[in-house]
Amino acid sequence: MTREPAPQRRDRREDILQASLHLFAERGFHGTSMRDIAREADITEGLIYHYFESKRDLFGAIIEEHSFLPLLRTLPDLAAQLDLRGLLIVLARGFFDVLRNNTELTRLLLQEVQVFPEEKEAFFVDAVGQSVRELGSILEERMNDRARAQVDPQIAARLFFNSLLALFVEQEILGGKHILPVDEADYIDHLVDMFVKRLGPGKATGPRPLR
Question: Same domain for 96 and 186?
Answer without folding.
Answer: yes
